[in-house]
Every structure is written in C-alpha cells, then in structure tokens.
Amino acid sequence: MTAAANPLRGESGLQVAGVTYVLRPTFESLVLAEAELGSLFALVERAAQGGLTLTEMITLLWHSLPGETRPDRAAVGQALLAMGLVAATQPVRAVLAQVLQGEL
C-alpha cells in the first residue's frame, strides 16, 4: 500500500481488492506499456475518440501501479468493473494527462 494520491500533482488512486494504490507511472513502466499496447500517442487519440478498450485500460493502469506491491491484472480488471467504466476513466485520464504533460 502507498500514500494517498495527491491530485495537485496529477495523481490518482485505484482501489484493488480493498487496497488503495497511487498510480505513478514511471518511464520504465510506460515503455513496457507501450511495448504491449503500441504507441501511447495513438492510445491517447483512441481515448479521446472513446475507442479505448477495457483491456487497454487495465494494461495501462496495471503498468502504472507500484511494481513491488502490484496486484495481478485480473484483480485490476475486477476493480475497474466494480467501479463502472465511467468512473474507471478518471484514473486512466489522470495517467494519460501525466504522460502528455511530462509530470512523471
């Protein structure tokens, strides 16, 4: 478990299996996400057009969780479904904003 998210720094939290994690994408985690998902710029464009898939959301958020305490992907997927897809777009938007603004 990590400290509380600081929205002033563009951080967002994600609750998975009763534990709240702060989404803090690192350069290394974004490189791994990009290797799996393709261009992050294309991902941003798909998100802006409403074309982001659940798999892409799960993958991006999973890679943005702290590696030493990261839950498995299935748990992240269950957390997103429990939130509802509309609410799940908030942490995705926060991560994508950090990527675009360079606040990593």
Give me a quick take on this structure:
The protein is mainly alpha-helical and 104 residues long.
Description:
By secondary structure, this protein is mainly alpha-helical. The protein has one domain (about 5-100). It has five helices and two strands, in the order ββααααα. Helix 3 (about 55-65) crosses helix 5. The relative contact order is 0.21.
Secondary structure layout plus pairing:
Blueprint: E1 12-16, E2 19-23, H1 27-37, H2 40-48, H3 54-64, H4 73-83, H5 85-101
Antiparallel strand pairs: 1-2
Helix pairs in contact: 1-3, 3-4, 3-5
Give Rg in angstroms: 12 Å
N-to-C series of helices and strands? EEHHHHH
Silhouette: globular
The level of helicity is 55-70%
Could you tell me the strand content as a percent range? 5-15%
The chain-level structural class is mainly alpha
Weakly predicted, low-confidence segments:
none
How many runs of DSSP E, i.e. beta strands?
2
- The largest beta-sheet arranges its strands as 1-2
The largest sheet, given as strand count, sense and whether it forms a barrel, is: 2 strands, antiparallel
Kindly report how far apart the N and C termini lie: 19 Å
Number of helices: 5
Domain unit count: 1
Mean pLDDT: 87
Keyword list:
two-stranded antiparallel ribbon; 2 strands; 5 helices; 10% strand; mainly alpha; 104 residues
